[in-house]
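Researcher: Next entry in the queue.
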Amino acid sequence: MSGPKLSLRQLHIFLAVAEHGSTAAAADAIALSQSATSAALNELESVLGLELFDRVGKRLHLNSNGRSLLPRARAVIDSVRGIETWASDADTQLGALRIGASTTIGNYLLPALLARFIENAPAAARAEWQASVSIENTRAICELVASFQIDVGLIEGPSHDPSLSVTPWIEDELLVVCGPDDPIRPSGGDGRVGLDALREAVWLLRESGSGTREVVSQALVRHLHHLRTGIEFGNAEAIKRATAQGLGIACLSRYVVADMVAAGELVILPTELPRLSRRFYIVTHRQKVPTRGLERFLEHLAREDEAARPPRQ
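Model: Structure for this entry, 313 residues:
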């Protein structure tokens, strides 16, 4: 086949233009002249036989072709970078990791998990190791993994994206909690809150798209048939503090409520519900080229089930 061919340089420039919105801004970001940037973009569109942007003045907006190419281009560039890192990554090195975690995991498990990972790493690697952490809801983390913007995601609900490899991880116990003065608390020492009372209670929940929201709703509706919902919150920290103030009751991870239960600011409600739990998951892209550092991190995650468990009250 003769004539111009697709190149990594063209894809790299395409990603820069897609991110910055113009050839001038992209050229500044990647230290090229604007004319060279524009020429490479034109070459790419010529090779593909497709226009990738809508031109509005000096601004370039991805069209449907460009949006379709974007994750493919990221996958190619990410794989090349992975190969480069793998080639220079000696057994004592960890490289740089891009980690994503849904909010419960990111806020309550990940800091200690990373500390144990570094503690057990080769001494020569600790000073050089770098990582970036993105904390979003489960849906957003899966999208970041699928578009190769992060290397691995830790999520609170299963993903059905066919491009992702999903591995069951730590089991998490879900607890129904209320404030210490909430009238729903049983007056007797051994009493349990009945299902009718739980149906009438106001529930404080996470936002739509949260793994916690999906799992909690499924677990509770199976037994209560419906939930009387109150305020929706963007994170579990806000829910547990609102619960402590008597704004409603909540079903949250034991990891989330452990500190406030220990301090007496929240109370675990004994209910007629069965034990509620969920599974955390590890997600990676099926086409991801793992570096030695990513392999080490995944091996560490596989050993974390017992180490990550919070103390029981």
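Model: The longest strand covers residues 164-178.
Researcher: Noted, moving on.
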